[in-house]
Automatic annotation (TrEMBL):
CDD domains (UniProt xref): MFS_NepI_like
Major facilitator superfamily (MFS) profile domain location: 1-373
Positions of transmembrane segments: 30-49, 61-79, 85-107, 119-137, 149-168, 204-222, 228-249, 261-277, 283-302, 322-344, 350-370
Cross-referenced PANTHER family: MAJOR FACILITATOR SUPERFAMILY (MFS) PROFILE DOMAIN-CONTAINING PROTEIN, TRANSPORTER SCO4007-RELATED
A molecular function (GO) term: transmembrane transporter activity
Any one Pfam family match given in the protein's UniProt record, by short name: MFS_1
UniProt KW Membrane keyword: yes
Protein name: MFS transporter
Organism encoding this protein: Sphingomonas aliaeris
UniProt keyword annotation of Glycoprotein present: no
Record's keyword terms, sorted: Membrane, Transmembrane, Transmembrane helix
Length: 377
């Protein structure tokens, strides 16, 4: 399940290190919004497709979604112009949410005392997909081309679907809701659980900063100060993969001591990463900052999921929809904001944007530190 989640989510990040190459091949301002469109698609898929995990047999849903993802990747690979690439990217984002069918299913199959560790393990695979996708895409785009990277994604999606068909048990839903009532119930869940709102807003802010950095990194490295290409931008994914170690560790700590402290420390680490990005204008500064950024965001993510999945077990897919939907709406906003900040003034406005988002997340956690919520249970 960790492998499948990683393969699925990787598809929404291939475009980030390739963005400069894609812009040269597909001139026009619309190409720069491919990362934003992909994340908006992911957010849309979270709200439209992930609730189906509470309604239909989950194994079949996962396999079908992987098949659709392979088709969307093929469309992106053959698209003759920027407009169709953007549309295909939207579809890729929507269908890549199969990763978010896998994560709550892992929580569903685990025992309560092991849920944090189980989710942490699957999230470690998902996070490897997020980070190493950039390394793979940067290398392939530099040496073969960006279309070839999308073509490579096709058999990977098919293989992941076949793997899930072979190993997953059948898992029937626990609800008798209709699809319409499931969608309508999202608002009720948001209103009912303060812990869900706090977790979602915090993670949205952190992920907005995370997406801002990774959207602009390839463009930043192409500046005369560095004069580096997409392959080097992709290598930062390997550096950031250190943060994957945070997922299982954070899950085990959340199981033993509760997730609240881990979330606060993760938000603080994320803020520190932007301080490093701003003060150290060197490759060493980027390396240190990436480690802090990824470690902080992933620690907070797993711990927030620990809170969310415990709120109502029979509604885990919908709770995951709300939480991850908010997170990726934040990511899309961060990508779009970073693109505009970069156009307005380069790297410094991007750093100020990312630092401000992280600071708000820290303040939210500090403001709620004295209150008792579901996260303490």
């Amino acid at each position: 399940m960790a492998v499948a989640a990683g393969v699925a989510v990787a598809n929404i990040y291939y475009n980030q290190p390739m963005l400069g190459i894609m812009e040269r091949d597909l001139p026009g301002s619309i190409t720069s919004f491919v990362p934003t469109t992909t994340q908006l698609g992911y957010a849309a898929g979270l709200f439209l497709l992930v609730p189906l995990g509470d309604l239909v047999e989950r194994k079949r849903l996962i396999v079908l979604q992987f098949g659709g993802l392979a088709v969307a990747l093929a469309i992106a690979a053959v698209a003759p112009g920027a407009a169709l690439v953007v549309l295909a990217s939207l579809l890729v984002g929507i269908l890549s949410t199969v990763a978010q069918q896998v994560v709550p299913l892992a929580a569903h199959l685990s025992t309560p005392d092991r849920r944090g560790a189980t989710v942490g393990t699957v999230m470690a695979g998902l996070l490897c997909g997020i980070l190493l996708s950039r390394t793979l895409a940067g290398f392939v785009a530099t040496h073969l081309g960006w279309r070839e990277m999308f073509w490579l994604g096709v058999p990977m999606a098919i293989g992941a679907g076949a793997l899930m068909a072979a190993v997953l048990p059948r898992s029937m839903p626990d609800t008798t809701h209709s699809y319409g009532s499931l969608i309508r119930s999202l608002g009720g869940l948001w209103s009912e659980f303060a812990a869900l709102r706090k977790a979602a807003v915090t993670q949205a802010l952190l992920f907005a900063g995370f997406s801002a950095f990774w959207t602009i990194l390839a463009l930043h490295l192409q500046e005369p100060h560095f004069s580096l290409g997409a392959d080097v931008a992709g290598l930062f994914g390997i550096v950031g993969a250190v943060g994957v170690l945070a997922a299982p560790v954070a899950g085990r700590i959340a199981d033993r001591r509760g997730p609240r402290l881990v979330i606060l420390l993760g938000a603080i680490m994320t803020l520190l990463s932007w301080v490093v990005f701003g003060l150290l204008g060197s490759i060493a500064g980027l390396v240190i900052g990436v480690i802090l950024l990824d470690f902080g965001v992933q620690s907070a993510l797993v711990s927030n999921q620990h809170i969310v999945y415990a709120l109502r077990p029979e509604a885990r897919a919908r709770l995951n929809t709300i939480f991850m939907g908010a997170m990726f709406l934040g990511g899309a906003a961060g990508s779009a904001g970073a693109t505009m900040a970069w156009g307005a003034g380069g790297w410094v406005p991007v750093v100020l944007l990312g630092g401000s988002l992280s600071a708000f997340a820290v303040l939210i956690q500090i403001a709620g530190a004295g209150s008792r919520s579901a996260s303490d249970v």
